[in-house]
Write a structure and sequence with these properties.
The protein is mostly beta strands. A ten-stranded antiparallel beta sheet has the order 4-3-2-1-10-9-8-7-6-5. A hairpin with a 5-residue loop joins strand 2 and strand 3. The longest helix is centred in the N-terminal third of the chain and has 9 residues. It is globular. The relative contact order is 0.23.
């Protein structure tokens, strides 16, 4: 389902469900992030619902807090972003200890061409949400860094929430692994 014009990168509150049919396969990206074969196969079977609350705190700093659930109600953890470009350590259920930093930027600030393409005019005007995530303890697995941009694109003629990811990994030496994830807008999300 298309996102209404009122839902923008300045107001991402709502419920978004990943659309596997419109999205790129994330299997190789997840493999390079040390996700086991079993978990990757599970990820292919279920869509993920993002229950998103976007707000500005009393200090004027934007926050995007998401509760993730596999469609069917299976909890998937939280993913909270403070848009101040400060690096934070986060423990993720799937990826372990991560370093995360997020902010809003104009496309001119993004170097990776893949992350700059096909955004709607409102996303270009308001700026993309830009996040950089890296694993802190790769152990025996690959060290990786994922750079993402979030915004809206026209997909099959409908305005949809999209996240573009460009991942570099010690397990891949021929350039980044790029993936586009497309989300269906489900409904507004009451934050009260």
């Amino acid at each position: 389902m298309a996102a209404p014009p009122s839902v923008t990168t300045k107001n991402l509150s709502g419920v978004f469900i990943s659309n596997r049919h419109l999205s790129d396969s994330a299997d190789e990206l997840l493999r390079l992030q040390n996700v086991s074969w079993h978990k990757r196969k599970m990820a292919q079977m279920f869509n993920v619902a993002l229950y998103t609350k976007h707000y500005t705190d009393d200090n004027g700093v934007e926050h995007i807090d998401m509760d993730q659930k596999l469609v069917g109600g299976i909890p998937g953890g939280s993913d909270n972003h403070t848009l101040d470009w400060q690096e934070r350590d986060v423990t993720d259920l799937v990826f372990g200890l991560l370093s995360v930093k997020t902010h809003r930027v104009s496309l001119e600030s993004i170097e990776d061409e893949f992350l700059k393409t096909d955004w709607t005019e409102d996303t270009i005007a308001d700026g993309v949400i830009h996040t950089v995530i890296s694993n802190k303890n790769p152990g025996d697995g690959h060290a990786w860094k994922a750079e993402q941009t979030w915004g809206f694109q026209l997909v099959d003629g409908e305005r949809r929430h999209v996240r573009l990811a460009s991942l570099t990994s010690s397990g891949k030496t021929d350039g980044p692994q790029c993936v586009r994830t497309v989300y269906d807008y489900c409904k507004s999300y009451s934050t009260s």
